[in-house]
Amino acid sequence: MIPRSRVPLYDHSWQWHLRNAFRTAGDLIDALGLPPDTVAVDSEFPLLATRPFVARMEQGNPRDPLLLQILPQARESDEVAGYTGDPLDERSHAEGAGIIHKYHGRVLLVTTGACAVNCRYCFRRHFPYDEARLTTRQWDFMLDYIRRDSAIREVILSGGDPLIMTDDQLSELVHGLESLDQLTHLRIHTRLPVVLPQRVTSGLLELFAGSRLKVIVVIHTNHSRELDDQVASGLGRLAAAGALLLNQSVLLKDVNNNADALCELSWQLSMAGVVPYYLHMLDKVAGAAHFEVSRTGALRLIDEVRDRMPGYLVPRLVSEIPGHPAKQEIR
Fold first, then answer.
1. Which residues, at least 6 apart from 145, have a Cβ–Cβ distance to it below 8 Å?
2. Which residues have C-beta within 8 Å of that of residue 150, sequence separation ≥ 6?
3. d(Cα 174, Cα 296) in Å, to the nearest integer?
4. Which of 21, 56, 90, 221 is paired with 160 by a 20 to 30 Å CA distance?
């Protein structure tokens, strides 16, 4: 772990941690005491990592599974067949005002382009956020779009990370959605409770507890070492506020592509009150090919996990294929 003198205490606000996150490879390498020959490169998709997340990385280990998720590498510039800037063909489903409508009965809102960490495998690392995200000026358009499709019962807040929004901003958006009688569920996809547990504020908890919508919080955790006591405490408070907690992982070479890592992650998620719901095959976004695990390797791994774990702790191995009406389970 990073020495306490180098890591701000957990009582700093989440906004402070966003302002003071690591943004250069040099600072990160120095903080972790990595070997001098550790190579990181400049990238159009910049390095970004919160100090609480970095504090869980192993000192001096350039192969740390948390570090590999956020450290830019030269291999990201390789051109690999089949890897594109829009691997899920989201732009063809964009309806304006940050609306992506791919699936029956639910609609996704791109609320922001900002995150607290920049994951190197992010399928939206090339997404045109400046022109395709929801702004407050477009909320009326967004609400009217949903109102005109009575089949929509669930709204999914995504990004970037929707919890980058302040409690006041999020509250205004949620209350607007609550005004639509057809809506019953609100799903929030976020990494902040994991990489920045201070984001689980009293205001956020009050918003979730008081909403008439069923709130589902889908966190994103790939390795058990991402879950420390502070994260578990925040997740417990979210559950106590009435949120259903699910986890999505991405299967990543050198990060979690072994049965020990996947099993331990499921155990730790369960202890924190989170259902290990999905294990995603890598979306083929340009710059992330070095993380790919083959379909054969993925099937072998999930079979081994099934042999070792109770069924309720085995995530569904899935892939998202453009044009299909839902995620495709891999058997």
1. 95, 96, 97, 99, 107
2. 182
3. 42
4. 56
Handedness of CA 92, 98, 101, 103 (dihedral sign): positive
Cα 252 from Cα 21, distance rounded (Å): 24
pLDDT digits (tens, 9 = 90+) for 7-17: 444 668 999 99
Q: Strand 316-319's sheet: what is its strand order?
A: 99-100, 106-110, 154-158, 185-190, 214-220, 244-250, 275-280, 316-319, 328-329
Q: Specify the DSSP class assigned to residue 276.
A: E
CATH classification of the domain holding 277: 3.20.20.70
- Burial (Cβ within 10 Å: 0-12, 13-18, ≥19) of residue 82: exposed
Give CA–CA dist 94/14, Å, rounded. 31
- Pair (133, 201) in one structural domain: yes
For 279, the token pair is: 């294990």
pLDDT grade, residue 136 (50/70/90)?
Answer: confident
How many other C-beta atoms are found inside a 10 Å radius of the C-beta of residue 164?
A: 22
How far apart are the two ends of the chain, measured CA to CA in Å?
38
In terms of residue numbers, what domain contains 27? 4-77
69 and 207 share one domain: no
Supply 194's token pair: 């994991």
Class of residue 168 by CB neighbours under 10 A (exposed 0-12, middle 13-18, buried 19+):
exposed
Q: pLDDT-based confidence at 94, cuts 50/70/90?
A: confident
Say if residue 160 is preceded by a cis peptide, omega within 30 of 0.
Answer: yes
> How many folded domains does the chain comprise?
2
Q: Which of 134, 138, 110, 105 is nearest to 123 (CA)?
A: 110
* Token pair 């690999």: residue: 80
User: Is the model's pTM score more than 0.90?
Assistant: yes
Q: Which two tokens stand for residue 52?
A: 């609480």
CA distance 138 to 94: 14
